[in-house]
Amino acid sequence: MKKNKLWLSLSLSALLLTAVGCGDKPDTSSGSTDEGSNEQSYSIAISQYVEHPSLDATREGILAALKDNGITEDDNLKVDMNNAQADPTNNLSIGQKLKNTDADLVLAIATPSAIVVKKNVTDKPVLFAAVTDPVDAKLVSDLKQPGGNVSGASDTNPEATKQLMTFIHDHFPEIKTVGLIINEGEANAVVMSKTAEEALSELGMTLIKAPVTNTSEVKQAAESLVGKADAFFITLDNNVVSGVDTIIQTAKENQIPFFSSDRDTVEKGAIATVGFKYFDHGYQVGLMAVEVLKNGKQPAEMEVTFPDKLDLILNVKAAADYGITISDDMKQEVKDPENNIIE
């Protein structure tokens, strides 16, 4: 009888241990479950190359898309934010740090950050944003089928630069030479400058370059173009965009029309661009992040996306500061005047 009782006790203990062992396990494939609750929690790491309005808006768009899909910072989302402040050494250190990250997903904002993150983070999903040419930067070899652990969204449509050059040609016949301040160490800038140069050549115009190696040289580069260029132009060049205030100042002092490649710079004081909202671009990447975190989708199977809502964006007040009146003909080229004509 005692032997039977002992056997029964051991069996119940075994069943209890088995039940505990087979209980609810955190889903470690995408996020984890908070102890004591059923709510899924997530962690992401962000590497951003520098602070400027376009990249900041991209980051805000990413976080907004996550929030709209139930993944909210300081609630069920932990964010490890890293900013290189446009310093290549800082950028490299961030990449090496993220090599050992335990985040569920790594997001890289701007080409320099994406290149370093890809090199260091090989065992986690990686999504990039604000990258002009992902193939040229060797982030992916195939835009439709990236393979590996990296995908994301490009922030350029090759047609945008061509359309802006055509707008300058059509509405500013006195402009024959366009001065470009450029950091030729940044892949984004090189790709876009080639597009601009080819487009201007077809229009019978010339591109003049003023090279810089960092943001502190931007003012001097802009001043070097005075007397040589009829207009200023910049690409999605992070070092140059970071120093755009000095370009605007130089352009206004010398009444030289200034055109940019991003909406945020137009809002700050450039006359026009052909582009989109960087917040929307970030939101696009944020939706991809939702697919990775909540649905377990892998970057290898996620096609690289591009902005598809290009529009002419005009700053009427900024134009007046350069002594230029935005004509009705210019305004008629804007598809969404309510949002893209800045008074």
TrEMBL record:
Superkingdom of the source species: Bacteria
Keyword NAD on entry: no
Record's keyword annotation contains Signal: yes
Keywords: Signal
Signal peptide: 1-19
PROSITE patterns cross-referenced by the UniProt entry: PROKAR_LIPOPROTEIN
PANTHER family hit by this protein: ABC TRANSPORTER, SUBSTRATE-BINDING LIPOPROTEIN, ABC TRANSPORTER, SUBSTRATE-BINDING LIPOPROTEIN-RELATED
Protein name per its UniProtKB record: ABC transporter substrate binding protein
Organism for this UniProt entry: Paenibacillus algicola
